[in-house]
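Fold it.
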Amino acid sequence: MITDFYYICSQSSELQALLNDSNNDIKIFPILAPQGTGYPYIKYQTISVTTYSLLAHDDVADQVRVQVDIFAKKYSDTTSIAKEIRKTFKDLAKVEFRFEDFDNTALVYRYSLEIQFIQDVDFT
């Protein structure tokens, strides 16, 4: 499912400042980050999609739920990125905190959010 999540995040100069790599590419990846990706980065996936339609019309909109996982070597980086995501989606979506964790093997913090928003149906 293609969502508007990446596009909206990539337009935020604050998120670009926090997540851009040396090639000036924003480190936001669907489902899986490429091996060797430097921290911090975001991984996202669609959890569910509910389609809204009108009688005798095509589908008109989708309610999309996206899980967003922020990974960083410093806890403060995860919370800074989460704060910017909340600001970026403030007027566009419902943002909920899910959980936070620390991976003792990789020595990486994880901060998880869920974002719910409505987007136009795209049949292309």
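The chain has a mean pLDDT of 90.
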